[in-house]
Amino acid sequence: MTLKSPSLEKLIRALLKLPGIGQKTANRLAFHILKTSYEEVKELGESILEVKKKILRCSVCFNITEDSICHICKDTSRDNSIICVVEDSLDLQAIENTREYKGLYHVLEGSLSPLDGVGPEQLRITELLRRLSGGSVKEIIVATNFSAEGEATAMYMTKILKPLGLKLTRIAYGLPVGGDLEYADEVTIAKAMDGRRTL
Ligand SMILES: [Zn+2]
């Protein structure tokens, strides 16, 4: 599509890079931005830059945080003998929303996907092993998604964690095959945590 407006075309190209945004939606969003007041667009632009500047990864679990250590790792009332391994902070939040789980987390920042060039070294696995060397962790819950990548990650985690002799479990019950944790409802996730099976 030629709009004879390089700046508008540039905006559409940038929007197209966002996940789940196709050509039609990108066009609609760009025209919506055109109609929106300067102040509102400025606020949107500034809030995008602000998260990039302020949001860090927790130095312990790699959850998103605005401090060096996230609020979960700081919370001394949580059970530090159990770590739930998730793909990203949205999955962590989905489990937190159930209010049932009181252990700690480890965010891998992705899942194994050789076709996209994501191997074990791109995930926070070395950091997890380092956390385990302290000896206080007794159980690992693998709560990666039920997609092909999430399952491959769970299999890989089993391979490297099993020899450590920890209790190793995988959430199971009720979560849809191919499903993303972040889209599941709270009751389903709570049941999946309860019904976890030993790997
Ligand atoms: Zn943390």
From TrEMBL:
Entries under SUPFAM superfamilies matching the protein: Recombination protein RecR
GO molecular function: DNA binding; zinc ion binding
Zn finger limits (C4-type): 58-73
Pfam families given in the database record: RecR_C, RecR_HhH, RecR_ZnF, Toprim_4
Swiss-Prot/TrEMBL GO biological process terms: DNA recombination; DNA repair
Keywords assigned by UniProt, alphabetized: DNA damage, DNA recombination, DNA repair, Metal-binding, Zinc, Zinc-finger
Top-level lineage group: Bacteria
Residues in Toprim domain copies: 81-176
Function field: May play a role in DNA repair. It seems to be involved in an RecBC-independent recombinational process of DNA repair. It may act with RecF and RecO.
Family indicated by similarity: Belongs to the RecR family.
Protein name: Recombination protein RecR
Gene label: recR
